[in-house]
């Protein structure tokens, strides 16, 4: 259960949003909407604990996330704009090593399955600099296929640079996670119909 | 998180950096060649007076090692910062201090250890005695990890700063001074017939202090950088 109370975010001289409050229970899809520059990414980084809020509190199951520290990060899967994929490594190495460093399951079979799910298993031995933008994005998204045990997914523009097939795969991953009782917070500019028991929208204005 | 998970995360972090470094062999060679060239310029510049070279040798090799190790620092976090790996590291359910320490260890293995290995070859140019060569090796072995640790704090502090490279040297070089003094001092003391034990102990002490404080300070700076 994620609870945000009177959150305020200031970047530089600008106040992006203030007095923002919402809660998200299990099975909830939380869509953050708003024009470019309205603070969507900042809000998501607030939720991950990367960016401390200017005011207000973010609580996970009643406790402030900054007090929880590592325990909170163990509940969280975050996918940001930059994909965290290293050019020099192959797709399989990237996924395996980042899963191990991030405490996700990294057995060979699990890695293979995740790459298969995202449709990049056949490229797994290619260095990522040889892959296209969309394929690299798929390598990053393959982490989600390993993150079933993390209740809270925070996804910043997960659908950019994806073709329709990959988009459908990611939508299914998100839906499966919601069905398991997970919470998904995401931003997107595309209209993607995601089936969820509860959908909440947070509108940010500029 | 449990301890095996942490050990595995640290090994994976170090493994990833070593693998990336090995696929960029040119970068590693640049550091080594820079070290060899800087240390070789001095005998060419001051002439072939053996007595003079023997006196200068330890200091020159040490200064060259210090500059080479600084040259490699910029790569410690820069690519991880640019491609989002650092963000994921900061969100891993483990202590960022330890993960950063794993990165520094990998960085030293890839850039510091090779310097230590070729240093005796450069020492030959300065006609260092066998004893002095051994002490040079020992002092570099104790000193270069300290350089990597101190440098990591600077590298993390200058992440995302325009012209960070120059700023990094201004930040880090003054902090390298004690390591340089005791490192070169150890070799000079041996050459003068005094024991190097005191200098080496001090180098060891510097390493321990850096091991305790540098990863923590680096982790704090990394957290600020990924805000």
Helix content of chain B: over 70%
Spans of at least 5 consecutive residues with low confidence of chain B? none
How many distinct folded domains of chain A? Answer: 2
Structural class of chain B: mainly alpha
* Strand residue content of chain A: 25-35%
Beta-strand segment tally of chain B = 0
Instruction: Choose one word for the global shape of chain B.
Output: elongated
Can you list the strand order of the major beta sheet of chain A?
6-7-8-3-9
Q: How many domains make up the coordinates of chain B?
A: 1
Largest sheet of chain B: none
Mean of all residue-level pLDDT scores of chain A: 91
- If you compute it from the alpha carbons, what radius of gyration of chain B comes out, rounded to the nearest whole angstrom? 18 Å
Helical coverage of chain A, percent range: 25-40%
Describe the structure.
The complex is a heterodimer of chains A (206) and B (227). Chain A has 206 residues and is of the alpha/beta class. Chain A has two domains: 1-75 and 151-206, Rossmann fold (3-Layer(aba) Sandwich); 86-148, no CATH class. Chain A contains seven helices and nine strands. Chain A has a five-stranded parallel beta sheet with strand order 6-7-8-3-9, with helices on both faces. In chain A, helix 4 packs parallel to helix 6 (133-145). Chain B has 227 residues and is an all-alpha fold. Chain B has nine helices and no strands. Chain B has helices spanning 3-22, 25-46, 50-73, 78-83, 85-90, 96-125, 130-157, 164-191, 197-226. In chain B, helix 7 packs parallel to helix 9 (197-226). The mean pLDDT of chain B is 92. Classes of the chains: A alpha/beta (206), B mainly alpha (227). At the A-B interface, helix 3 and helix 4 of A face helix 1, helix 4 and helix 5 of B.
